[in-house]
Every structure is written in C-alpha cells, then in structure tokens.
Design a protein that fits this description.
The complex is a heterodimer of chains A (261) and B (336). Chain A is built from eight helices and ten strands. With 261 residues, chain A is an alpha/beta fold. Chain B is globular. The two termini of chain B are 38 Å apart. Classes of the chains: A alpha/beta (261), B mainly alpha (336). Chains A and B meet through helix 2, helix 4 and helix 6 of A and helix 9 and helix 10 of B.
Chain lengths: 261, 336
C-alpha cells in the first residue's frame, strides 16, 4: 500500500487526519487519512454505503468531523470548517444530488451562495444573467431551445442540469473540484463530456476528487485511488502500481471479505 | 469542454405568461370578485369614500403581508403575528405610560417584535419544528404574555396626547392616507430586500430546496430566522398603526388579522410550497382583499359572507397555484 506521502515535500491542497464521522449509532467514517495534492486527480472507489459521499461532505465542510479529527487546507489546520469557508478557499463540488434549486432560474442557481454585488451592496442581477448566458453558450454548449438564463431548472433535461452544476463548480476558478457520481443518469455523450471535463481540470493545474461507481470511468482519468470500505480506507494506490484488472479483482475481494489482500 | 460551439443558441426567455401566469391568474380571480361587488352594490363602489377608507385600513394588514411573504417563500408560515402585534404595541404603551418619549417606546416595541420573531425563527429553523405547529403555540404564548402584563386593559392613544405619532401613522398627505404611503414605501423596501440583496436571494433558495442551499454554503437557519424577525418587527409597526387608527390600544389587537393577511399572501401568487413568490403580488392582493372586506360591510351584505369570501380566495388561489405549478413541471394534475 502506498501510504505516507506520495509526494515528499509537497503540501496537500486538502488533508484529513484521523477523521471520523458518527451519525447517532452509525459510524460512517472511521479514522480516515486522506490527502489531495496540487494538480492531482484522486479517485474514490467503494461500494454503496462505504462512506464516499460522507467523506466528500466532510471535505466540503457540510459535515463536521467528530472530535479528534482535523482538516488541513494547504498545510494549515482549520477549525471552523464550513461550506462557505471551503468555497471561499476555492473548493467546489458537483454533488451526486446536484444541489440545484429547481424552481429558480438558471442564473440564481449558477451563483448560489456567492451572489455578486454592486458597489451599493445590492445584487448584481444584470451580471448574473449575462454571465450565465455566456457560460451556457461558451462552456456548456447548449443547443436545446429550452435554455435561457431565466429558464427555471425544473424544465431542463438531466444532462442540462448536470451541465449547470458542473459549470458552477468550474466557473469560480476552484483549486479543487469534487465530483460525486457526476455521470449518474447521463447519456453516453453527456458522460463523455463530463469525463473530458475531469481531464481538463488536470490540464489547468488544478486538483480533483472523482467519485464514481463505474471503475471504467474512474481508472483512466485519475492519478491515485482510494478504496473505501465500511467507512475505512481499505487501500491507496498509485495508478502506476495497479492495473485495472487487478483493481477490479481487489474491489470484489474487499466487498466480500472486507480486506484487500 | 465541447469543441464545437453551436453557432446560434440564443433562445427566447420564458414567456411572460409562463413567468407571471400564476400571479396574473390569481389576481384575475380577485378582480372578478371585486367586479361582482361593483355590480352588486354600484352606489357604494363608485363612491370615493370607500376607497379612502380602505386606503387607511388595508395597509394595517397589507404591510404585514409584505413581510409575511418572506416567511412563506422560505417554505414556512407564521400564525403568531397577530399576537406579536398586540405584545409589541403593549410594550410601546407601557413605555409611554411610564414616561418614555414615544420614539424610544416605538423602538422598544419594534425590538419586542424582533425578539418574538427570533423565538419563532429559532424554534422553526434551528430545532426544525414545523412552523404551522409551533407558531400556534407561540401565538398563545405572546398573546398570553400581553394579556398578563396589560392585565386585560387598554390604553388611549389620542391625537392630543401623541401628535407626532398621529402625524406618522394616521394623517393624510396630499390627499393620500399616510397608511398607504407607508405601504408604498415598504413595498419598495421589501422589493429591494427580496430581489436585490443576498438575503432575498437566499430566501428563495432556502425555500426552494434547503438541502441544496446548505450544500452550497447558505446558512438556512439564519435566513429563516431573519425572515421571521422581519415579520415580527413589521407586525408591531402595524399593531401600532392599527391602534393609532382607532385612538386606542385594545388588548385584543390583532384579532381578525390572520385570515386577510394570509389570504393576501397566497392570492398574491406566493407559493404555499415555498421557493416562489412576490411582494408586488402581496401588495396588489392586499388591496383586493381590502376591497372585499370593505365592500361586504358597506354594501350591506351580511358580514358572515366575509369569511366565506376569504375562504374561497385562499382555497381557489392555492388550488390554482398547485395546478399551474404541476403544469410547468409537466406532472399530472393530481401529482400522482
């Protein structure tokens, strides 16, 4: 197992040390050590209920780790970790559940939680509308006749909604982009587009955490892989160390027995 | 991302009808009712006195409807504002009868409203208690507190005693009752607050999908609490306006305000499901409700019909909203 620092001397963008998360009686994460380095794409694999989404939401500050676990951003320990803080530091997420407000127009969704303001302290609605229109045509390549910044999200297709969620994560010049099951429910072309997007993150020198059920989506784009099982890190692999076949083999084994070896 | 950009993907914005359809439809229903009154009692409804009368009385609940719109958009409801009206005004009365100058007492009263709103907001958003239930509880709580501290007695608030207060809340300027001027000013302010501030943007987002809003870093607890506090402060302002209008603070102040205020919010197109709504809708709807109210009484129709009308307005507007909402979502009408 490639534990310890895969890049000696480098500081991770985000690091979790001994993080556990308990919901009532259920321990969703236990003693997780997890790090993402600059310019690196980290894959997160694991069966349903392995704790992938909980881990992501802890990285994002949505869940507060249990006492004893720490979150470090660029080497600095951060105690008051929250979603607003994480986003302020340049961590963006495309959530599995998309985190859209579907009765609202696209422009409100695009700028959710960080609405631009004018010098008067009032919302810059004009800018939000114009920027949304620009992003939609430049980045999302919308051809559907149903899309306009004032359209409400509920009228859009699944792929279009995902487009809004992804563009929202990319637009704010994030240091670290987290994609939680981004290809779920997408068509083949939409999936391909999403995977291209993940590769582009790396080209832009940014980091990403990529979570997907489908190992054939994850393996080609990532540098390193974490395998989670029942709330624990069951293994960490450099892609050079392990072939896809071996990985699949081990994932089956971990699902059956709880150990990788 | 995509290598080929579509040459022309400028598409039309959603049609006017789709955007404002529900509000237009609901206001249409109100206008039809009002036209019914004009036909039923033409002598009353062609006389300007009736319009002056409801320009004075409508803002007493209409202004609260503006603030309550925020709470309803967040997906909650506040049934305790009539009691907050009374409690805040009672604090004002205690202040002035104990020698405070009225502006200071006014601030104390408004602060009481903010505190009551905070209690509601805290219980609803922080402890996640359904607002429909808990604000019935706090309604009794605030009313009971007011009755206890006033010992059930009223306080006169005549123009000789408080000329400044009457200038602020009861006179007419340029022939327009000051109540309606206040309502117009507060319409402008609440419109700005809802449509041009982050708080307003977050009110929509939290009401639409609180989980999404939280995932994107919006503090839903704070947003809801502030919406309840706004309603509390405005309720006290209206409690005072109502009392000054009648020259007297009655310990029962606020009774009878619940239905017309809530009817105004729903008639104005604010969705009972949260996430959508408008203060302009509530503004227009308040005057329609005011017209119904004044109309029934002055047309000599049995006042029992008032409740019937409000009932119809609330039921029809909520049903219409639901149907239009499902149409937009392309769901079946019954939602199944």
């Amino acid at each position: 197992m490639a534990e310890a620092s895969p890049r000696p001397g480098e500081t991770p963008v985000i690091e979790l040390r001994n993080v556990s998360k308990t919901f009532g009686e259920v321990r969703s994460l236990s003693d997780i050590n997890f790090a993402v380095y600059p310019g690196e794409i980290v894959g997160l694999l694991g069966d349903n209920g392995a704790g992938k989404s909980t881990l992501v939401k802890t990285v994002m500050g949505f869940h507060k780790p249990d006492a004893g676990g720490d979150v470090f951003f660029k080497g600095e320990k951060i105690d008051d970790w929250s979603v607003a803080r994480a986003r302020g530091l340049g961590i963006e997420t495309v959530y599995q559940e998309r985190a859209l407000c579907e009765k609202q127009p696209i422009w409100r969704n695009m700028f959710m939680g960080r609405e631009p303001r004018t010098a008067w302290g009032l919302l810059d609605v004009k800018k939000m509308r114009e920027e949304s229109a620009r992003l939609m045509s430049e980045h999302m390549g919308f051809t559907s006749a149903a899309v306009h910044p004032d359209n409400v999200v509920t009228t859009m297709s699944g792929g279009e909604k995902q487009g809004v969620a992804i563009t929202r994560a990319l637009y704010f010049d994030a240091q670290l982009v987290i994609l939680d099951e981004p290809t779920m429910g997408l068509s083949l072309t939409e999936t391909k587009k999403t995977l291209d997007f993940v590769s582009n993150i790396k080209k832009a020198g940014k980091s990403a955490i990529f979570i997907d059920h489908n190992i054939f989506h994850v393996y080609p784009v990532v540098d390193r892989l974490y395998v989670l099982d029942r709330g624990k890190v069951a293994g960490v692999y450099d892609k050079s160390e392990i072939s896809m076949e071996e990985l699949i083999d081990r994932l089956y084994r971990v699902a059956r027995t709880g150990t990788l070896e | 991302m995509s290598d080929e950009k579509p040459k022309n993907n400028r598409v039309a914005p959603p049609s006017f009808l789709r955007r404002y359809g529900s509000q237009l439809g609901i206001i249409g229903v109100g206008l039809v009712m009002w036209l019914g009154f004009v036909i039923a009692a033409p002598t009353v409804f062609t006389n300007t006195f009736i319009y002056v009368a409801f320009a004075q009385t409508t803002p007493q609940f209409g202004i609260i409807a503006l603030a309550l719109t925020f709470v309803v958009i967040t997906g909650e409801i506040d049934l305790s504002f009539p009691s907050i009206m009374a409690l805040g005004t009672a604090i004002f009365c205690i202040g002035v009868t104990h020698g405070l100058v009225w502006p200071v007492a006014l601030l104390l009263g408004l602060a009481t409203g903010a505190a009551c709103g905070w209690v509601n907001g805290f219980l609803v958003s922080w402890l996640n208690i359904p607002s429909l239930v808990i604000t019935i509880g706090t309604s009794f709580l605030f009313r009971g507190l007011e009755l206890v501290i006033m010992n059930g007695t009223g306080v006169p608030l005549t123009a000789d005693m408080y000329p400044g207060l009457h200038a602020l809340l009861r006179e007419s300027y340029f022939g327009v009752p000051v109540q309606t001027l206040w309502m117009l000013a507060l319409l402008g302010l609440t419109w700005l607050l809802l449509n041009r501030t982050r708080f307003g943007a977050h009110v929509f987002l939290v009401g639409d999908n609180p989980t999404s809003a939280r995932l994107m870093g919006i503090d839903a607890v704070s947003v809801k609490t502030r919406a309840f506090m706004l309603t509390g402060v405005i309720a006290v302002f209206c409690g005072l306006m109502t009392s000054v209008y009648g020259y007297y603070f009655w310990p029962t102040t606020g009774d009878g305000f619940l239905l017309n205020t809530i009817a105004s919010v729903f008639l104005g197109g604010t969705s009972v499901f949260g996430g959508t709504g408008s203060v302009i809708g509530s503004f227009v709807a308040s005057y329609i409700i005011g017209a119904i109210n004044a109309g029934i009484v002055s047309a000599g129709i049995n006042a029992f019909y008032t409740q019937l009308c409000f009932g119809l307005v609330i039921v029809i507007s909520v049903v219409l909203q639901t149907i239009i909402d499902r149409k937009i979502r392309r769901q079946s009408i019954t939602g199944r």
